[in-house]
Design brief:
By secondary structure, the chain is α+β, with helices and mostly antiparallel strands. The chain is 20% helix and 32% strand. This is MoaD/ThiS family protein.
Length: 88
Amino acid sequence: MRVELIGHLKSVVDKDALEVRVEGRVALIEVLRMLPEGLRDVLLKDGKLRPGFLLLLNGSDVRALSKGMETPVSDEDTLTVIPIIHGG
C-alpha cells in the first residue's frame, strides 16, 4: 500500500511516500499502526488517529466512508495523509 505524506510529515521519515506491505485486507487503522515509529507517534495516540489530520483513501475522505478507520484496505490502495493547519 502506498502512503503519501504531505507537508511536514515528509520530514519525519525523510520521504514523501512509503510502501507498507498489506497481506490480504486489513482495517485502515491497522495500516497506520504498521508505519515507522516516528511517523506512527505523530499520527496516533493510544492507538487512535490524533486530531489535525485528513486521510484520503484512494482520493476519498476516510471520514465519509461508512466504516471510517475500520475500512478494509489492500496492497493496491493509496492513502494520503494531510496535516490540517489552523491559523488563529
